[in-house]
Amino acid sequence: MDIDRRSLSRLLSLNDRQLVRMIEQLASENGIDLESFNVSTSDVAGLRQALGSISDEDLNSIAAQYEAYRRQKR
Q1: What is the reported pLDDT for 54?
Q2: Model pTM score
Q3: Can you tell me the distance from the alpha carbon of 52 to that of 13, in angstroms, rounded to the nearest whole number?
Q4: Contact criterion met (CB below 8 Å) for 4 and 28
Q5: Distance of alpha carbon 53 from alpha carbon 51, whole angstroms
Q6: Cα 32-45-19 angle, rounded to 5 deg
Q7: Which of 6, 16, 17, 50 has most Cβ atoms within 10 angstroms of its Cβ?
């Protein structure tokens, strides 16, 4: 998944259960175990607020970090 404003908007358009499932799927695909974070649908409001307040600069930084992580993982 590319991390950009369009992808972020798509994530935010999902209902709570879909958003949690998508986060779990993305984490799992990247070797991250969310069990230790105890993410639940009750945390979705905070996740939505955090995702909705990400600046373009933050998105660029996140995208660069994610790409570096993926390259390192290979």
Answers
A1: 93
A2: 0.71
A3: 11
A4: no
A5: 5
A6: 50
A7: 16
pLDDT in tens, 38-68: 766 678 889 899 999 999 999 999 889 888 8
CA distance 37 to 40: 9
Tokens of 35: 């069990």
Maximum CA extent, the chain = 34
Banded pLDDT at 74 (limits 50, 70, 90): low
Query: For residue 65, which amino acid is it?
Result: Q
In Å, how far are 16, 17, 22, 41, 46 from 38, measured between CA atoms?
A: 15, 14, 15, 10, 14
The CA distance from 32 to 59, in Å, is: 20
- Angle of CA points 51, 54, 58, to nearest 5°: 130
